[in-house]
Write a structure and sequence with these properties.
Helix content: 25-40%
Strand content: 35-45%
Largest sheet: 4 strands, antiparallel
Oligomer: single chain
Number of strands: 11
Order of helices and strands: EEEEEEEEHHHHEEE
Structural class: alpha+beta
Amino acid sequence: MTLLPFVIVYSYERGVRWFIGCNPKELQPGFHWKIWFIHRVEIVIVIDDVLQLPTQSVITKDKKLVCFSVNIGYRINNAVKHWCGVTDFRTATLGLAMIHLAQRVRERTLDELMGDLKSLEKSLEGTLTTRFKDWGTEVFLVGFTDFAEVPQQYRVFGIGDHHSSDNKIVL
């Protein structure tokens, strides 16, 4: 397929085409010529998507342990910026969002958080909106899927052979 002299970009995609490694250009849906040793073409899906953050555990200002999950709805609006502005969009978004939430949760008490989760969602949405502009992406939804205080947390770490149950430490 990489040697074909053309590429077809579907209606739910955008393409990015480089000419000898320079001047990336966004390709709209349709038929486009390419010369395999001169052009490189990458395809980006631009329809709405949702990224679910891993469950996160953070200790609040009043020393309460909370666990929560968050979903982020986004869409790509500039394929060139999205492809060239960040190495790995999903990994960068996960890291950025999790750091932001951990910092904000540590600044508040459990009662403050439970009384106004909406402001925490808005705070994350604002941070992501600012960063995503450089990544050719926009946020359309940020929401907690769960948020709860937990009495204690157990983490299991494997040491040595991952197949042996003898090598587990529980904290």
